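Work Package 3 (structural annotation) set out to generate three-dimensional models for the target panel prioritized at the project kickoff. During this period the team completed the workflow that converts sequence records into discrete structure tokens, so that structures can be stored uniformly alongside our sequence database. As a representative example, we reproduce one entry of 759 residues exactly as it appears in the project archive.
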Amino acid sequence: MALTAAASAREILVRLHDVMAARTSAQAKLNAVVDIIGEALESEVCSIYLLREGVLELFATRGLDAAAVHVTKLAPGEGLVGTIAGNVETLNLDEAASHPDFAYRPETGEERFHSFAGVPIIRRERAVGVLAVQHVEPRRYDDVEIEALQTVAMVLSELIANAGLIDMTGGGTTRPQSTATARISGFKLVDGMGAGVAVFHQPRIVIEHTVAEDIEEERRRVYSAFDKMRDQIERMAAQAEFGVGGEHDEVLETYKMFAYDEGWSRRINEAIDSGLTAEAAIERVQQRTRMRMREIDDPLLRDRMHDLEDLSNRLLRIVSGRLGTAAQMGLREDSILLARNLGPAELLEYDRRRLKGVVLEEGSLTAHVTIVARAMGVPVLGRARDLRRLVAEGDKLLLDVTAESLIVRPSTAMEEAFEAKLALGQKRRAAFAALRDQPPVTKDGHRVTVMMNAGLRDDVAALDLSGADGIGLFRTEFQFLVSATLPQRERQQRLYRDVLDAAADKPVTFRTVDIGGDKALPYLNHDEMGEEENPAMGWRALRLALEREGLMKAQARALIEAAAGRQLNVMFPMVSEPWEFDEAKALFEAQREWLAGRNRKMPHEIRYGAMLEVPALAEVLDQLLPRLDFLSVGTNDLTQFLFAADRAHPKLALRYDWLSPSILRFLARVAAPAQALGKPLAVCGEMGGRPLEAMALIGLGIDRISITPAAVGPIKAMVRSLDRAAIMAQMQEWLAAPPSRDLRGVLEEWARAHGVVLD
């Protein structure tokens, strides 16, 4: 095979450079290109398809029937070529016809060719064509050949763009054709509302020159850009101010680790070796990263890849000498920032006084930018589609993350309604704030315990702001999710001690780490688990922790030492059988004895609890309850297990109701033995944070809930307007003989009739 290394790829680029410089027509150049690539790869077929008028048209070929040129056309998503363009992915097949998307085109005469490899031709992050090779003998193309195709595709992008051959409709940053009001929906990442003008985070940098004249000069430019970028990151990390510590500090440390990653810089150098300019090499590696991101199922690993994407953008701006982001140009008025995605450092560059919100085309709850935005108090809407098509720079925007919507170019009436909602929200928050120091006591004198959930060190500040009775669920895994490596025991201990110090005399219940399943960590080897079809029900939480004793022992010691001289409340997640609880408790007790033997100061008491999320545990409560100090019900996981319904599935998310008789009867069956033995029973999860659902829980005799800090005020208001004895008596009737129509509607009617505050 002729192609064996980057040097061979460089030889192809040199020949392509000569073609591009020739004074011939664009069609002649494309005809020459397919011959050069076909010869280099010793491939019988090489074809170029370009996007024209919304379809992929065969523009040039070596090996297929010449009569098919400008005749064969495929829609994006149609056939192998359409699949490559539609998904912006690479295909490498030893038998093309076996692929489910294969579409036979008789006019091409391709029936005798078996192997197929194709890569997208990308311009401004969009696939504008496809470069494909085929071979008579069934074989997969080598990785080095695919690399060469991808590099050539980048050069082709420049050639065909300069010749005006590609259809860039929708790919630019021009103003949308419509100036009418538009509404864009999204996903709630950081709650809040904000109004301002549209500012795109990053003007697109279009690479004008892809083939290098002097490779060593290009390498020098990249080295210099890396030095400048790292200096910027160090300065930003030093200047970021969020108060005392926080997980965002670990986020920035992880981000800095990526900036110094030798593998990343090596891949860019290899791309330069193949004959690309510094800008093209960075973009080439960035394209590979984007393709990998599309293939990664693990959301946490995908979020880490976004950090690398952010750094690539920064490096590209530096090496091209362009000012770049809106942050560097400064926000001149209240603004809503729009971006495909953001890295944490890029968000930190913005003036917080002017930044009223962020809208992302991607983004997730565990992404680093989300964690930093939460610490900054900036509302963030994610998964918002078609931003560049529907929004123009300077458009007036109304962002309502609570309603999961962005209104573009609002009418006067919409602005007035938004302002009214904003004012109402401020008024309601003020009313709930007035309840901060008022105890949640029902009208008939029963004290309900209203606690809050947390997962970040900074969340603890909401204890005083909300007036919650304590932290009923501190999710310890968040520290693991934002770290680049497994957090050392000392770091864990420091976090737990800081949380206990901040909570002062209010209780904190630490849930041991719930990782695995859909919360996989890239630094833990999960190979032995294989692919999990149902990760929520897989090797996660306590199941994983009991197997990886070292991880749990380190956490046990960190918690015990952090709680020296205080009460420590520990809760184990996803307990399925009593023996699992026994093993976890024994592990903690062994660590307590080990520390006591070394004269370490101990907690004055350790209370052990379990999370009831697996329905099977309800069948053995008579065995489990005498062994534990408290029980918490995790309604989020419990609901999906009871209904066999994935709560992340869009068609199932709203199908099953927390106020269905099946859920409430199950909870009543759990509450009865706990109450009989005097074991504290709490509900942790979204169910307890909704006033109507919380009213139903109180009706079951459950008087401890742990909810989001924002829900504490509304729940207190509901509790103080409720007659507990009356709702308990009514719930017994309803559960014995459920209403023929929906129980939710009946509960709402009862609440209105009895003056219960639900809003």
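Residues 6-162 form a domain with the Beta-Lactamase fold (CATH 3.30.450.40).
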